[in-house]
TrEMBL record:
Signal peptide: none annotated. Keywords: Lyase, Pyridoxal phosphate. GO terms for molecular function: ornithine decarboxylase activity. It holds the Pfam family Orn_Arg_deC_N. Transmembrane segments: none annotated. It comes from the Bacteria. The modification N6-(pyridoxal phosphate)lysine is found at K48. One of its GO terms (biological process) is putrescine biosynthetic process from arginine, via ornithine. This is ornithine decarboxylase. The lineage of its organism: Bacteria, Pseudomonadati, Pseudomonadota, Alphaproteobacteria, Sphingomonadales. Belongs to the Orn/Lys/Arg decarboxylase class-II family. It catalyses: L-ornithine + H(+) = putrescine + CO2.
Length: 398
């Protein structure tokens, strides 16, 4: 893969006509080390946030051994890249064929579920010649509040804690290890989200009277974006660690987490070109059907920087973006802060797009991704206490 110092190097050197993805393996490495050193349990990467093989290999090299996969394609992808990784199939509703292939072909032993119907499906699909598997880790997904999070995951999956006793007891019978998992919603802005969810785990355990071997607090760990500045992640870990220690679980029980966003957000940014300007709206060459799905569909704001040889001295103002497709929906309200003199032909770097950015890209209307380049500078922002600011940028230290 081509390497460059930063976005300016790429803009000047290549004058790219398609959006360029700038990846920072060192940022992914740093995020992984932070979780591995500070989270009081096991950290697995939720592959859906960014399934890029280069990122997955970087996380493995940093020490991430467990991967949360949600489809058979993700199972095959990660197994193909990492023969020795532990894969956990954490989608509560799976096809029987996917379960069977994951178990019999790819060595997957951990599955999540939120109904007796799914439990039956897992037990049947993992049996060999009619004999039930004896090595399953089954994680019952509880429904918990997404009130502290920017993106809800509260309505689709999960069984309420006070209704979960029959399912927990049945899963206990079928499992070698029994887990309870949940997801507080993505970009949880307060550690309180986990404390409240773990209180529901207690309700479930006490109600069912079962021995629990795994408590999996899911994803939701935040990154930093304009207008969304969370407190430090180790504060989240403290709250989780204390609430976990107080749970009535087995002596040898394990605490797990499944960060997607937090491990991948700082990994990538995208360099786009301004094709036209109309007042405070910029027509750029990436958008809602590319890496900016969240900017368009859930009004997410991302940090932006004008990438020019001679920095602009104009005042900063807020812009909205139109993406390249012919669709009105290809609109990103922002506001995205840029110098007031930005014009057609300028390049803009859009930061913090490693999570749910390139993962969402489609080829709609013929607009596809351009090159991927390794950048050696720091991401535009960080939740991992980046201290060495590159000359071109100021990086907030937290
Ligand atoms: C999406 C998802 C994750 C990752 O969530 P983030 O908010 O990106 O950390 C983890 N676990 C499950 C089951 C998910 O669906």
């Amino acid at each position: 893969m081509h390497e460059d110092h930063n976005a300016l190097g790429v803009a000047l050197g290549q004058k790219p006509t398609q959006p360029v993805t700038l990846v920072r393996p060192h940022a992914a490495h740093r995020a992984a080390r932070y979780f591995l050193e500070k989270f009081p349990g096991l950290s697995m990467y939720a592959v859906k946030a960014n399934p890029s093989p280069d990122l997955i290999r970087s996380l493995w090299d940093a020490g991430i051994t467990h991967y949360d996969v949600a489809s058979i394609a993700e199972v095959r992808l990660v197994r193909g890249l990492l023969p020795h990784a532990t894969l956990c199939f954490m989608h509560p509703i799976k096809g029987s064929e996917a379960i069977a292939e994951a178990y019999h072909l790819h060595g997957v032993r951990t599955f999540s579920l939120d109904s007796l119907f799914e439990l039956e499906k897992i037990v049947t699909a993992t049996a060999t010649d009619g004999v039930a598997a004896t090595d399953l880790t089954l994680c019952v997904r509880l429904r918990v509040s997404s009130a502290h999070s920017k993106l809800s995951l509260a309505s689709k999956f999960g069984i309420p804690a006070d209704e979960s006793a029959p399912l927990l007891m049945a899963a206990r019978q079928a499992a070698d290890a029994l887990g309870i998992c949940f997801h507080v919603g993505s970009q949880a802005m307060s550690p309180q989200a986990y404390a409240e969810a773990l209180a529901q785990v207690r309700v479930a355990i006490v109600g069912a009277g079962v021995t629990v071997d795994v408590v999996d607090v899911g994803g939701g760990f935040p990154s930093v974006y304009p207008g969304m500045e969370p407190s430090a992640l180790d504060g989240y870990f403290d709250v989780i660690g204390r609430a976990y220690e107080a749970l009535p679980v087995s002596y040898s029980a394990e605490l797990w987490c499944e960060p997607g966003r937090a491990l991948s957000a700082e990994y990538a940014s995208v360099l786009v070109r301004v094709e036209a300007r109309k007042d405070d709206v910029l027509y750029i060459n990436d958008g809602a059907y590319g890496a900016l799905f969240d900017a368009a569909h859930v009004a997410w704001r991302f940090p932006t920087e004008l990438v020019r040889d001679t920095p602009s001295r104009a005042r900063t103002m807020g812009f909205s973006f139109y993406g390249p497709t012919c669709d009105d929906m290809d609109f990103m309200h922002g506001p995205f802060d840029l110098p007031a003199d930005v014009k057609a032909g300028d390049y803009i770097e859009i930061g913090m797009l490693g999570a749910y950015g390139s993962a969402m890209r489609t080829g709609f209307n013929g607009f596809t991704a351009g090159a991927t380049v390794i950048a050696r500078d720091e991401p535009m922002d960080s939740v991992y206490g980046v201290t060495e600011a590159t000359p071109a940028k100021v990086i907030s230290i937290r």
